[in-house]
Specification:
alpha+beta, Arc Repressor Mutant, subunit A, 3-stranded antiparallel β-sheet, 44% helix, binds zinc ion
Length: 136
């Protein structure tokens, strides 16, 4: 780390890397607030809007997945695969399992075909209680 580095660009890159790493290590979905708290605890001088902007960029680049939690809040996760998939999410602890949904893919395709729609996308997540949480 040298003084010659331009603070602006390197800070953005550092924050993006920190967010990416944090989500890669997490096994569950995290909210922007949780990510923000984590970055602050590491000493990053980051603002919540910056965290949101970075998360949106990572999601647009398909580097992370996002989904809407029951309360309307958006949560983020670095998934093991970049291929299209769905999630089985614990509504209590936000633990997530990545699942394929062949029946859903076929259904979506046939419904789109029936109505003459092309370039159809979908986001379907399953919410429930994981084994750990159900035991409590
Ligand atoms: Zn995923
Ligand atoms: Zn759980
Ligand atoms: Zn699907």
């Amino acid at each position: 780390m040298t003084a010659a580095r331009t603070a602006g660009a390197s800070r953005t890159t550092r924050q993006r890397t920190a967010i990416s790493q944090y989500l890669a290590e997490a096994k569950d979905f995290r909210t922007a607030q949780q990510i923000f708290d984590h970055l602050r605890s590491l000493g990053h001088a980051v603002s919540l809007p910056t965290v949101y902007r970075t998360l949106t960029r990572l999601a647009d680049a398909a580097e992370i997945d996002q989904l809407r939690l029951a309360g309307g809040e958006t949560a983020y996760r670095h998934c093991a695969t970049t291929a299209h998939h769905h999630h089985l999410v614990c509504r209590h602890c936000h633990t997530a399992v990545e699942v394929a949904g062949d029946a859903i893919e076929q259904w979506a395709q046939s419904v789109a075909d029936q109505h003459g729609f092309t370039d159809v996308d979908h986001a379907i997540e399953l919410y429930g209680l994981c084994q750990e949480c159900a035991r409590r």
